[in-house]
Specification:
Elements lengths: L1 E5 L7 H12 L5 E5 L7 H11 L8 E5 L10 E6 L2 E6 L5 H6 L4 E4 L15 H14 L10 E2 L11 E2 L5 E8 L5 E3 L15 E5 L2 E3 L1 E3 L11 E4 L5 E4 L5 H5 L6 E6 L1 H5 L2
Parallel strand pairs: 1-2, 1-3, 3-5, 13-14
Antiparallel strand pairs: 4-5, 4-6, 6-7, 8-9, 9-10, 9-16, 10-15, 11-12, 11-16, 14-15
Helix pairs in contact: 1-4
Length: 267
C-alpha cells in the first residue's frame, strides 16, 4: 500500500499524474489518499497531518509525502525507515513527527537516479522523483539500495511544553483543523485526566478555558472547552463552531496551563 499526501489540491492534473506514473511502474499498487488539501507550501501542516495518522496503516505501508516548496533546489530526496513503515519525500522537515515518534528512524539520501522518471522536471518532482521511488519500493526495492544513510536530515523543533516549577506549564497551538479546533502541544503527560479535579485552566490570549471533557456533548452552549483529541493532544473547541475564529488563533500561539486558580480566588 502507498499513502499519498500533498498540497497539490484536486483541481489540477498533479495528483493523477503522480498516480499514473506509480501505476505504470507497478500496476498492482494500492494508492490511498491521506489528503491533497494541505495549505500550499505549509510543510508544518503536512508534517502534523502525516504524524497523526501514518501509524494507523499496516506495517509495510509506504508513505509518499510531497509538500515541497524547495522543488528544483539543492534540498535532498530521502527515504525513511521507521516503525516498520517507509516514507518518501523531500528532506525539509515533512517527517518531523515521524522522527519524534520513532527515534530509531533510519534516513537514506537517494542518489540512485536510475529509479527516477526521466527527463526530470525541475518543478514536478512528485511525478518524476518521489512517485517512481514509492513505486519501486512497493516492488521490493530497499532503501539501502538507493543511497547512503545520513544523520543530518532536516527536522522541526517540535514545541514541547515547559513547566516553570510553580505549577504553570507554557505550551503552544500546533495545528488548526478543518473544524476550527485548536490542537495544543499539551498531552496527558502535562494534564492527566486524573488531575481535572485540580481545577485546571487554559489561557489563550485573553480567553480562559475552564471546562474540560472527553467528548463534544459535554460542551455547554457556545462555551470554549478542552478535551484530549484523537491525535493525543489537548484541543480547544466550541460545539458546532470554530474555536480558532473565536480565539483569533494561529499556529505558535501561546497556551498557559495552570491549576487551582479558581479555588484560590474564592478564598
Amino acid at each position: 500500500m502507498i499513502t499519498f499526501l500533498t498540497d497539490f489540491g484536486t483541481a489540477d492534473y498533479f495528483v493523477p499524474a503522480v498516480k499514473g506514473v506509480i501505476l505504470s511502474i507497478n500496476p498492482h499498487a494500492v494508492i490511498t489518499d491521506i489528503t491533497h488539501e494541505v495549505p500550499a507550501h505549509d510543510i508544518e501542516y503536512g508534517a502534523f497531518t502525516l504524524g497523526a495518522c501514518w501509524h494507523n496503516f499496516p506495517p509495510g505501508t509506504i508513505h509518499l509525502a510531497v509538500v515541497d516548496p524547495g522543488v528544483g533546489s539543492e534540498r535532498r530526496v530521502i527515504i525513511v525507515e521507521a516503525g516498520r513503515h517507509l516514507f518518501v519525500g523531500p528532506d525539509n522537515g515533512i517527517f518531523s513527527y515521524v522522527y519524534a515518534r520513532e527515534p530509531e528512524a533510519r534516513v537514506h539520501q537517494v542518489t540512485q537516479t536510475s529509479l527516477w522518471r526521466h527527463p526530470v522536471s525541475t518543478t514536478f518532482h512528485g511525478r518524476d522523483v518521489f512517485g517512481p521511488l514509492a513505486a519501486h519500493l512497493s516492488l521490493g526495492a530497499r532503501p539501502e539500495m538507493t543511497g547512503p544513510e545520513i544523520s543530518d536530515y532536516q527536522r522541526f523543533d517540535l514545541p514541547a511544553p515547559k513547566a516553570d516549577g510553580k505549577g504553570t506549564v507554557t505550551a503552544s497551538i500546533i495545528h488548526l483543523d478543518h473544524f476550527g479546533n485548536c490542537v495544543t502541544s499539551l498531552t496527558t503527560d502535562e494534564l492527566p485526566l486524573t488531575r481535572l479535579r485540580a481545577e485546571p485552566e487554559l489561557t489563550i490570549g485573553d480567553q480562559v478555558i475552564t471546562r474540560f471533557g472527553t467528548h463534544y456533548s459535554q460542551a455547554v452552549g457556545d462555551e470554549l472547552f478542552a478535551y484530549v483529541g484523537s491525535a493525543g493532544y489537548w484541543e480547544v473547541a466550541v460545539r458546532q463552531a470554530s474555536a480558532a475564529q473565536r480565539l483569533g488563533a494561529h499556529r505558535g500561539m501561546k497556551v498557559k496551563l495552570s491549576f487551582g486558580q479558581r479555588s484560590q480566588a474564592s478564598r
